[in-house]
Specification:
- It comes from Nothobranchius furzeri (Turquoise killifish).
- The protein has 16 helices and no strands.
- The protein has 403 residues and is mostly helical.
- The longest helix is centred in the C-terminal third of the chain and has 36 residues.
- The termini are far apart.
């Protein structure tokens, strides 16, 4: 099975053998076992990130005015805590009624307890800032290093050079480390996926990381080094702006800077991911490569992975365009960018806004929204009271029959 995996007709064009690759010296020829280096690099990135977030990110956050939101702690309750940890963080209406009878609390007290308890589990702004800062510095370093080792290479300007004399193309040492560091970084993101902040596009991010790792691994083994370096450089260019916009978004008094960076990021993202990537990269791998060889299984696999990335680009572009529309209309109250947490946490903000309105504070929902919420609340309370009255009357009837 292992030998079948490395069959030449899977990885190489028709008429090309692994023996052709042996024309290159060992230091210039990509070897599959080189990919094992990505694992210790991933562990090293995890350790380096821990040190960065512990010692460097906090003083940087203080300089930008990053402050954690103070949440009211939920009152101790064994029954509610047991339900929260073992069953659900968001009880249904039926479950709320059951908890009201079990704990002797009102519906509003139950809902407030669960809202406060969920807020306790939400990641702090300092944690989100540290994560954004770490990614910013990596993407910046990777982009600058990648640009430095590619700008004077012929395939950077003429994409047909990506396939000239393929696969007998010597691999430079700088490009080897460019590949290994990118693989190690995305490997570290997967290793920390269980402890990192789960965002609204969590599933899409996992698909993106896996597709990127498969893409880099396959392109390295098949000596698609030249086109692979272009793909990495293109993606890092917009990620720098995204993470820097997040950093200023978590700070205090940097709204104009954050908005300016977001506008620049939106333009760069849309141009690089929706224009340059399909018209230059995908066109290069789909069409220009056919001038050098005929289609083979590896050709289809590589292009399918590129298509997966393009679908994700379109998904994120839709989110960005929604943000741009709201920004232009002056209604940008909530951040829908990729640092936005899951829908559960969006609901927390909405409910927090309602609570502030009840206390006489201002919130962005407006009077019509408040009126609608109050009517829904009155209706819900009425239904709950009717259910309780019906339950009590049935209990009283059973007690009279028993007597």
């Amino acid at each position: 099975k292992y030998l079948n995996l490395w069959r030449e007709d899977y990885w190489l064009p028709p008429g090309v053998t692994w023996g052709d690759m042996e024309q290159l010296v060992d230091t210039e020829r990509p070897q599959p076992h080189d990919l094992l280096m990505a694992l210790p690099l991933a562990l090293g990135f995890v350790a380096l990130r821990y040190a960065f977030e512990r010692f460097l990110a906090p003083p940087m956050g203080r300089c930008l005015g990053v402050k954690n939101t103070v949440h009211v702690t939920a009152a101790p309750s064994l029954q509610l805590e047991s339900f929260y940890t073992q069953r659900s963080k968001q009880p249904t209406q039926r479950e709320i009624i059951h908890l009201m009878l079990a704990c002797g609390k009102t519906q509003r007290q139950i809902e407030t307890w669960f809202r406060r308890r969920r807020n306790q589990d939400r990641p702090s702004r300092t944690k989100k800032f540290a994560e954004a800062a770490w990614r910013f510095f990596f993407y910046l370093a990777a982009f600058m290093a990648g640009l430095a080792c590619l700008v004077d290479r012929p395939w950077f300007w003429d994409h047909r050079e990506c396939w000239r004399r393929y696969p007998v193309q010597p691999m430079e040492r700088a490009h080897f480390w460019y590949y290994m560091l990118e693989l190690g970084f995305y490997g570290s993101l997967l290793l920390r996926i269980s402890v990192d902040i789960k965002r609204k596009d969590f599933k899409e991010q996992v698909i993106h990381h896996l597709a990127t790792i498969y893409l880099l691994s396959f392109s390295y083994c098949a000596n698609y080094i030249r086109i692979g370096t272009l793909v990495m450089l293109l993606h890092d260019s917009s990620d720098i702006l995204l993470e820097s916009a997040k950093m200023f978004n978590y700070g205090t008094g940097w709204r104009k800077m954050c908005d300016s960076l977001f506008v620049v990021f939106a333009v760069v993202f849309l141009v690089t991911r929706l224009v340059i990537f399909p018209s230059k990269i995908i066109r290069n791998t789909l069409l220009l490569s056919m001038e050098a060889f005929e289609p083979f299984p590896g050709y289809y696999f590589f292009n399918i992975l590129l298509m997966v990335l393009q679908v994700l680009h379109i998904f994120w572009a839709c989110l960005i365009l929604r943000m741009v529309c709201k920004f232009l209309k002056g209604k940008l109250e909530k951040d829908e960018r990729s640092d936005e947490e899951s829908g559960v946490e969006e609901e927390e903000e909405e409910k927090g806004g309602e609570e502030n309105t009840d206390q006489g504070g201002d919130c962005y929902w407006g009077k019509s929204k408040d009126n609608l919420n109050s009517k829904i609340s009155m209706l819900t309370n009425s239904c709950v009271l009717n259910n309780l009255n019906h339950h009590r009357s049935s209990v009283a009837k059973r007690m009279r029959k028993a007597q």
